[in-house]
Write a structure and sequence with these properties.
There is one protein chain. The protein is an alpha/beta fold. Helix content is 43%, strand content 14%. The chain has a 7-stranded parallel sheet, with helices on both faces. α4 links the parallel β4 and β5. α1 crosses α8 and α3 runs parallel beside α4. The longest helix is centred in the middle third of the chain and has 27 residues.
Amino acid sequence: MGRDLFTYGHRTAVVTGGSKNIGLAIAERLLQAGLQVAIVSSNAENLQAAKDHLQGLGYTASSWHGDVSDVDALPGLLEQIHAHHGSIDILVNCAGILDLSEVEDTTEEMWDRVLDVNLKGTFFLTQKCIPYLKQGTAPRIINIASNAGRMGGYANAMSYTASKGGMISLTYGLARRLAPFGITVNCVAPGTIESDMSRMRDAQTHQKLLEKFPLGRIGTADEVAYAVCYFASQESGFSTGAVLDVNGGMFMG
């Protein structure tokens, strides 16, 4: 008789930025694994499109309109999700925005917006989620950073690099602080992935980036999602403070 490789149980995952691209792929794979999934997005239109997409595949996810950078709204958002699903066991911090401005052209407004969503939002949503995770089953926090946070990146702005490097450092710090509660904190650091973000780059920049990948191609959202599935599983319980690079070999460290 066969056996599923990983165990997920009757648990609930919250996926921020879950309405498209990497976040939607993560939500889809976690649903496929049998988890309950709540997707959070600041874009109501994308939320509805994601819900329709998942229903077309036979999956049902709850959808929640929320901006992770709006710290005051986070407790109410999590309270509603918990009341709806009965638990919050896994938090996937995937919400993020990209900045492609040159160093000399980066504005304070753009810097603040990127850091507010990518880093501040990650920290404060995690902070507000801790009481629920303490009550959860095999509680997990999974941060979606970037290759840019590992080695600086090539075509992104410094606001994005700083935010993703901060997420990696936050992963290390939170892993130590939350370990006594049995909460693991890990990170997936994708390289360039086929997405709306990657399509923001012009063809010449895209080709130059492609040449830097030893595997000779960019990645897919599913390849990131499967990495998340490992960290979400109950079998990953001895992994914490880890960064899993899904980047085609651009960064090896």
